[in-house]
Amino acid sequence: MSQLNKLATATIPNNGGELVLLQHEDEFTIKLSGARGVLMNSRVYNSEQELAKLGCAHIKSKENAAVLVGGLGMGYTLATALACVTESSKVTVAELIPEVVEWNRGALGECAGKPLEDARTEVRLGDIADLIKQQKADFDAILLDVDNGPEGITNNANNWLYTPAGLNALYNCLRPKGMLAVWSAGPDALFIKQLKKSGFAVNDKMVRARPGKGSRHVVFLAKKP
Ligand SMILES: C[S@@+](CC[C@H](N)C(=O)[O-])C[C@H]1O[C@@H](n2cnc3c(N)ncnc32)[C@H](O)[C@@H]1O
């Protein structure tokens, strides 16, 4: 622990405490304050990449595809989404915490290959919930990794996203045959039920934290008919 350098902190809105950015040599960690533990480590990102590969598989060769990623974190899901879609496509990334975007414009951004510099990336600062409440059916894929899964951890207000109202708003933002992909720390049968009730056809896929090993996480794949 003593070798970890504290580089910066950021306040999480809605009394969510703090995010802390730490560095040890070329390894970065983003921690949540209190006992909530590590949000991201720059050496463990396979499941974040899988989220994008699974969520964008149906639009690999589609021209002018539109993808929404929430949130930015260390940029691995964003970078993989950019690698999965065509040159004419656009990837919007919604990030709640301005400092996270700043960190990714600096040294942290090197980890995922500086995806914010890709001309197809658009950053929307703010709560993804506000964005989806206003948006029309404009996305072919929504890749959601703002929490530990269908349960708010970074920001208590995130719980709304996983309610029938939140899922309905996400559904309405998708084009026909669009895919909502949700990263989760583990399985959640109730969430699958809720997704089905909201009109999605649902699959879930186990993904490992590191290629072929590490913790078993889940990506929920919810397709709009
Ligand atoms: C686990 S990290 C995402 C990791 C990312 N998939 C990656 O590949 O590095 C969660 C991110 O979501 C952001 N976030 C949390 N709640 C949000 C919200 N309501 N709207 C937008 N971003 C949010 C956090 O600030 C954090 O940057």
Beta strand %: 25-35%
The dominant shape is globular
Which compounds are bound in this model?
S-adenosylmethionine
- CATH classification, class level: Alpha Beta
With strands numbered from the N-terminus, the spatial order across the biggest sheet is 7-6-5-8-9-11-10
Q: Considering DSSP H and I runs of 4 or more, what fraction of the residues is helical?
A: 10-25%
Total count of domains: 1
Number of helices: 6
Note poorly predicted spans: none
Ends distance: 49 Å
How big is the Rg? Answer: 16 Å
Q: What would you call the structural class?
A: alpha/beta
Number of strands: 11
- Any guess at the CATH architecture? 3-Layer(aba) Sandwich
Fold-level CATH name = Rossmann fold
**So, the CATH homologous superfamily?**
Vaccinia Virus protein VP39
Order of helices and strands: EEEEHEHEHEHEHEHEE
Mean pLDDT: 94
Largest sheet: 7 strands, mixed
